[in-house]
Q: What sequence folds into this?
């Protein structure tokens, strides 16, 4: 009976190690532990342009990640992009005149939603809306404007 | 001319008849899967020889693959000043591709070939027919427990491979290359998604385990009952498994990650 019991132990160890590996991957490697949906509330914001914002992009305030983008769709009535965000429940004291803008982390980094709290006394609640938004800065557009302006100035100085 | 046409025809017909036999074999095996649960002893013995004995090769390979990934990735990433993303690179390549694929290739070489040789020899020494004479169904007693053991072991081995590889990358990254270990883990957690990456990797490894065990058992069962026939079947198991793994991996990757 001894060798068989030995085998059982080894099989048990093997299965336990495999499951531990799976747990390690889920909790330590992936974002499963970082954010769970049930303890969050939803807010929406309308943007003129979302640039390269994606579902699951970060939502941060003062540089701290407080939630993530859960949905982006194009509203055919207002021709704006509607961005739905899940904000972690522990940050439930955002004023209702908070400004949302889309920034890029670094020059080539990913885009994220930055929330700038306002001065209002009432807070954003579940399914609340952010009214003041700032669209993503499109780099090509900015460069184009800059070049155009530079050319214009050059033309003026020549005259 | 006629002769070569005849050869071509015979070859095509043999190939298709083999696919047909393989499918029949799979269906017959699947129909006995529930009877395995009633005899856990047989399954345990197979889990030991298929899974536990593959444990060492998988963990050691995983460790080294992770370490090499970190070393190579570092040289490329540091050219762009993006060393902090090393963790993402190591974990994403392991969880999505290398974990399931390399461990499946190793599994085919280590466990698949053993299964084919074992069953082929059983057939060559007429143990399978002997069992049938004693009214023991070889599918129930021999094939189905091995099949289930392969399908259970493969995902566990692939998960271990990825987990150990990530740790190996961490060892090289923070130990040898002196990277910030906080960035290694935090960037990884920010970018690796549970559903998109981990679950899809696990699905891949389940598919690979299914296919490898199927090929290995069928090649053994279908082998020519001579020593040469068994050796050929064993070779075919490794070659066909490798082809199926790599081909299926392309299809699965296109399906899972195609729209990203």
A:
């Amino acid at each position: 009976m001894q060798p068989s019991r030995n085998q059982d132990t080894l099989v048990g160890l093997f299965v336990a190690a495999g499951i531990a590996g799976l747990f390690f991957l889920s909790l330590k490697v992936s974002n499963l532990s970082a954010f769970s949906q049930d303890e969050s509330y939803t807010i929406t914001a309308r943007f003129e342009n979302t640039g390269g914002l994606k579902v699951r992009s970060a939502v941060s305030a003062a540089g701290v990640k407080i939630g993530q983008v859960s949905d982006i769709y194009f509203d055919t009535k207002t021709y704006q992009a509607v961005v739905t965000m899940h904000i972690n429940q522990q940050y439930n004291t955002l004023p209702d005149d908070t400004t949302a803008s889309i920034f890029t982390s670094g020059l080539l980094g990913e885009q994220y939603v930055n929330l700038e709290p306002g001065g209002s006394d009432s807070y954003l609640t579940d399914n609340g809306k952010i009214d003041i938004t700032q669209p993503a800065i499109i780099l090509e557009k900015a460069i184009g404007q800059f070049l155009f302006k530079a050319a214009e100035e050059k033309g003026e100085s020549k005259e | 001319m006629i002769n070569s046409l005849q050869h071509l025809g015979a070859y095509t017909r043999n190939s298709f008849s083999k696919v047909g036999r393989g499918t029949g074999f799979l269906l017959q095996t699947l129909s006995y899967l529930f009877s395995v649960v009633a005899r856990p002893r047989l399954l345990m013995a197979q889990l030991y020889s298929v899974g536990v004995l593959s444990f060492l090769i998988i963990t050691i390979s995983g460790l080294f693959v992770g370490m090499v990934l970190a070393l190579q990735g570092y040289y490329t990433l540091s050219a762009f000043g993006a060393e902090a993303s090393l963790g993402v690179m190591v974990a994403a390549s392991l969880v999505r591709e290398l974990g399931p694929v390399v461990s499946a290739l190793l599994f085919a070489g280590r466990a698949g070939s053993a299964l084919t040789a074992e069953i082929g020899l059983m057939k060559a020494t007429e143990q399978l027919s002997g069992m049938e004479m004693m009214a023991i169904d070889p599918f129930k007693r021999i094939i189905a427990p091995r099949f289930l053991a392969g399908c259970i072991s493969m995902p566990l081995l692939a998960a271990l491979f990825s987990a150990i590889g990530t740790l190996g990358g961490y060892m090289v990254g923070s130990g040898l290359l002196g990277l910030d270990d906080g960035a290694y883990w935090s960037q990884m957690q920010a970018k690796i998604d549970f559903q998109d990456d981990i679950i899809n990797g696990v699905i891949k490894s389940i598919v690979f385990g299914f296919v490898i065990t199927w090929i290995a058992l069928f090649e053994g069962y279908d082998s020519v009952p001579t020593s040469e026939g068994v050796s050929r079947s064993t070779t075919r198991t490794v070659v066909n498994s490798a082809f199926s793994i790599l081909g299926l991996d392309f299809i699965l990757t296109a399906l899972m990650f195609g729209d990203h």
Q: What stands out?
A: Chain B touches chain A at residues 41, 44-45, 47-48, 51-52, 55, 91, 95, 152-153, 155-157, 159-164, 166, 185, 188-194, 197-198, 201-202 (CB under 8 Å). The CA atoms of residues 85 and 239 of chain B lie 36 Å apart. The mean pLDDT of chain B is 90.
